[in-house]
Amino acid sequence: KLGRADTDGVVGVKSGYEQIRLFPGALLALQDFVSGKLNSGSTRLAIASSADTSRAVQIAKKALNLLEVFPGITISQAFSIGWNEGFTGNIQIGRSPPLSSNKAVTHFPITRKETGIE
What we know:
Elements: E1 13-15, E2 18-20, H1 24-35, E3 47-49, H2 54-66, E4 68-70, E5 73-74, H3 75-80, E6 91-93, H4 107-115
Parallel strand pairs: 3-6
Antiparallel strand pairs: 1-2, 4-5
């Protein structure tokens, strides 16, 4: 079930023997954002992850495109709310240059530059 939506949706995806899923509180927060409870119209979201291999980056991005916040609304779509269509500068995943394992040095400054938000 999809949190407060109390309906079926994609809540987990398999990666090898593991299942990738959102923490229940994260799902509820994203549902509140998408429904407008946590979004005054000017709120936008970003992701910073130091996935440690190129395969892990591919898996993370695929999971964002499969896992749903509400039926038919993926995590990627939720994170696109408020940004120009096709914009992905708010999503920084990986450790390959220019990113590194230190998000404070790479992911966050790049996100600030890409989004124009300080």
